[in-house]
Amino acid sequence: MTDFDTLMMRRALDLARLGTGYARPNPLVGCVVTHEGRVIGEGWHRQYGGPHAEVNALAAVADQRLLAHSRVYVTLEPCSHFGKTPPCADLLIAKGVKEVVVCNLDPNPLVAGRGLEKLRAAGIHVETGVLEAEGRWLNRRFFTFQEKKRPYVVLKWAETADGYLAGPYFQPVRISGPLAQAAVHQWRTEEQAILVGTRTALHDNPRLNAREWPGQNPIRVVIDKNLSLPPTHHLFDGQQPTLVYTYRERATKDNLGYITLSEADDLFPQLFSNLYQRNVQSVLVEGGPTVLSSLLRDGLWDEMRILRSRQNLGGGIAAPRHGLSGLHEQFTLGEDDVFVYRQ
């Protein structure tokens, strides 16, 4: 692996990131085409159902004759099967590409090495593992979904400097500043679903959309074991797909689905299994404290984001106590400090 290989793969990863929130449930993929040390084409997977990164990058090459002498960098193993689009491995072969450099192998059983086998069988020189760790982090949702058979779980909450996330009796309190609130709405566009428990839904009456950031709204997921939430709450306004997980029976209608869980089994493994079956690759958990503490206790999470205000509340509902080391990232957003942990 040369410095040029690293530079080109990093560029491909940057391109792939542009598809965040739009390519799902497909992985994020970027592609760079080079000829004699010069970039001649770039592309990424812009939209689910649309052309893949390799298709866009190869089409961007002005002089198609150069492809027969090109070196292609792609962040994920080119697909080898027919889905919504034809196999990218076949396209690379048809274009006469001579060399392909891959960041990560695709864990999807429909691919899982078959794309590379096709390329090598056609005489294309293939290299793998360039910036592999960076690629896995970029596509952590996709890899978790494929390997663990459940969505990637992000826990998020806002707390005061003295460790509270709501006032007494769950009275809503504005904790985060405007920059942190905008960041939360950006995070909502990056995850496929957003989850809250009964108390948070009852007391906060949240919309759970991304009105303060451009992008797609997540699927709303609410736990309402006994169907006690008022039908007048925002969650039931039909404005975006909503799933209610309950121990009771109720018919699904329009944009509102009811899923009955077994009281005899643990709730969250059932819920995550159902989301997996629905091809939901990631979920942002925004509360409340009982839901967050349960997931922390059982280790059913992948990433945790805590927004800590500098104000004190003096009492109320305590934020979860996680007791974790291994802080991954820390930064400041206006008057809030953000702490990111990962499993």
TrEMBL record:
* Binding residue positions for NADP(+): A158, T200, D204, G288, P289, T290, V291, L292, S293, S294
- Record's cofactor remark: Binds 1 zinc ion.
Presence of the UniProt keyword Zinc in the record: yes
Q: Which residues form the CMP/dCMP-type deaminase domain?
A: 3-127
| Keywords from the UniProt entry | Hydrolase, Metal-binding, Multifunctional enzyme, NADP, Oxidoreductase, Riboflavin biosynthesis, Zinc
- For the ligand (Zn(2+)), the binding residues are H52, C79, C88
Enzyme Commission number(s) of this protein:
3.5.4.26, 1.1.1.193
List membrane-spanning regions. none
The pathway where this protein functions is:
Cofactor biosynthesis; riboflavin biosynthesis; 5-amino-6-(D-ribitylamino)uracil from GTP: step 3/4; Cofactor biosynthesis; riboflavin biosynthesis; 5-amino-6-(D-ribitylamino)uracil from GTP: step 2/4
The UniProt record lists the keyword NADP = yes
BP GO terms, sorted = riboflavin biosynthetic process
A Pfam family: dCMP_cyt_deam_1
Q: What does this protein do?
A: Converts 2,5-diamino-6-(ribosylamino)-4(3h)-pyrimidinone 5'-phosphate into 5-amino-6-(ribosylamino)-2,4(1h,3h)-pyrimidinedione 5'-phosphate.
Please give the PANTHER family that the UniProt record associates with this protein. Answer: 2,5-DIAMINO-6-RIBOSYLAMINO-4(3H)-PYRIMIDINONE 5'-PHOSPHATE REDUCTASE (PTHR38011:SF7), DIHYDROFOLATE REDUCTASE FAMILY PROTEIN (AFU_ORTHOLOGUE AFUA_8G06820) (PTHR38011)
Give the UniProt family note.
In the N-terminal section; belongs to the cytidine and deoxycytidylate deaminase family.
Spell out the protein name for this chain.
Answer: Riboflavin biosynthesis protein RibD
